[in-house]
Protein: Cthe-2314-like HEPN domain-containing protein
Organism: Alistipes communis
Amino acid sequence: MIRELTYNNRILSEQERVEFCEKSDEYINMFSECIEGICQLATKIQKSENSDYDKITNTLIKIGTFTSYSFCDCIVLTKLFVRATNPYEKSFLRGKLKVQLNESFKKLYGFSKKGYKDSHCAQLETIITMFPGFKSEFDELLSDLEQISKNSWWKNERDAEVHINATKLYKLRHEEINESKIAMETVQLTDLFNRFNHLISEVHRTLLNHMVVRYVKENGIGNAI
C-alpha cells in the first residue's frame, strides 16, 4: 500500500539532521555496493541455452541496477537538501531532487500508456507471470504507481529546472520551503523504489534456486551422494 502523505511542518533539530545524514550514509553505502555487485554479475553471466533464463536474468539485472541507482541518488540529494543552510542552496537542491524523482518515475512506470510501454514495469510484467507467487505483490506496486502518476506534483518544477526557465526558476527559488512536505513526498517515491528492489531480489533468488534444483536433478547429483 502506498505511503500516505502527511505533513507536520516540523523543522529538524541539529541533532536530528546529523542522525538523518548518518542513516542516509548507511543506505548510500549499502546500495552503492549493491550496484557494484549487480554490475559485476552482469559481466560474468554467460549466455545460456535457455532463452527464457537469459531474458529473465537480463531483465532483472537491468531493473535492479536502475532501481538501485534511483533510490541511492534520491537519498544523496535528500541528504544534501537536509544539510543545506543557505536558502538558495536549499531551493536549488529541492529542484534537483524533483528532477531526479521525475526521471526515475518516468523510467520506472511512465506518465501515459505510451510511456508505460517503454517502462521497466512493462519489462517486468513480461516475465512476472513465470513467478506467480510474486504476481500479487507486483500488482500492488503497479496500483500504487498508477495512483501517483495521476498527481505528478513534481513535474512543473522539473520542467523549469531542466529547461532553465528563468522566470519560473526565480519564483521557485523564492518560494517558501516546507521541509516536512518535501521529505514526505520524497519518501513516498523512494519507498516504492525500495519495494521494487526487494521484489527484484526475491524473484532473482527464486530463479537461482530453481536453476540449482534443476541442475541437481538433471545431473543426478542427489543420487550420487
Remarks:
- The chain has a mean pLDDT of 83.
